[in-house]
């Protein structure tokens, strides 16, 4: 339309394969083989996956009795904490533990007493083995383990991926390589929406405004 590029997107869903044409496309998942399986065809220069690595992290959800002695409280009744955080200590096999509550709680819900069996979320770099679980818990009923490619390893990327991949093809998730959080991605999403809008309407003086920092600082 009006000499603008049209993007043909092929996709596969539970209902089968499909394809459609779009004026504008925003990619909102990391273009990295460990996180998504996008391919870009017939772009010149070609668009490839961006280098870098993700930090794997393991979440274990354990229903059991905390071994409060390990944390310096021989009497479990006196254990006062619902979160246990750690500092970067070599050979420590876990990063953090939280006593977690159901998402939907009733009016009568009370957090478990420290000596009762409770549900704990344990974050670690590696899956916990039996010995490590028996160190953190006196005994347990169940363990559910999920391994995530959690956040980018900031030392692994030499430069940031581009935001504009092609005329009206944008890439949001590159900002995770600056800092990986919901707030960052929300800010990036607003910025990409403004950028796409201004580019579409050729409002080019609104993009990369030289005096923007001054305007922002003095707007009140
Ligand atoms: C274990 C973990 C803990 C975290 N903890 C926090 C925290 O406490 N606070 C915080 O602020 N941030 C946290 N983050 C980071 C936060 O989750 C991300 O920054 C945020 O989810 C990014 O949002 P997004 O919408 O860009 O991407 P995502 O939430 O990753 O969504 C991308 C979506 O794209 C989908 N997708 C992938 N490939 C395709 C494809 N080919 N076609 C269609 N869809 C596709 C994916 O299934 C996914 O649903 C955490 C991340 C992880 C993994």
TrEMBL record:
Cofactor dependency: FAD
Origin superkingdom: Eukaryota
GO MF term set: prenylcysteine oxidase activity
Keywords from the UniProt entry: FAD, Flavoprotein, Glycoprotein, Oxidoreductase
InterPro entries according to UniProt: Prenylcys_lyase, Prenylcysteine_Oxase1
Gene Ontology biological process terms in this record: prenylated protein catabolic process; prenylcysteine catabolic process
The keyword Oxidoreductase is annotated on this UniProt entry: yes
All residue ranges annotated as the Prenylcysteine lyase domain in the record: 3-209
Keyword Secreted attached: no
This protein's name: PCYXL protein
Lineage: Eukaryota, Metazoa, Chordata, Craniata, Vertebrata
Gene assigned in the entry: Pcyox1l
């Amino acid at each position: 339309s009006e000499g603008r590029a049209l993007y043909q997107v092929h996709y596969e869903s539970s209902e089968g394969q499909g394809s459609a044409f779009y004026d504008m496309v925003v990619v909102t998942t990391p273009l990295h083989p460990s996180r998504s399986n996008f391919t870009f065809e017939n772009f010149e220069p070609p668009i490839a996956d961006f280098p870098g690595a993700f930090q794997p992290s393991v979440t274990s959800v354990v229903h059991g009795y905390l071994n409060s002695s390990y944390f310096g409280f021989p009497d479990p009744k006196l254990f006062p904490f619902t979160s246990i955080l750690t500092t970067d200590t070599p050979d420590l096999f876990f990063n953090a533990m939280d006593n977690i509550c159901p998402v939907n709680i009733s009016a009568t819900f009370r957090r478990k007493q420290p000596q009762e069996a409770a549900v704990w979320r344990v974050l670690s770099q590696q899956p916990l083995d039996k010995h490590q679980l028996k160190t953190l818990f006196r005994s347990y009923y169940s363990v559910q383990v999920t391994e995530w490619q959690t956040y980018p390893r900031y030392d692994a990327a030499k430069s940031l991926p581009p935001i504009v991949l092609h005329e009206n093809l944008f890439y949001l998730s590159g900002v995770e390589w600056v800092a990986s959080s919901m707030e960052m991605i929300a800010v990036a999403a607003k910025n990409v929406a403004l950028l796409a809008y201004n580019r579409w309407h050729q409002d080019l003086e609104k993009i990369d405004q030289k005096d923007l920092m001054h305007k922002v600082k003095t707007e009140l």
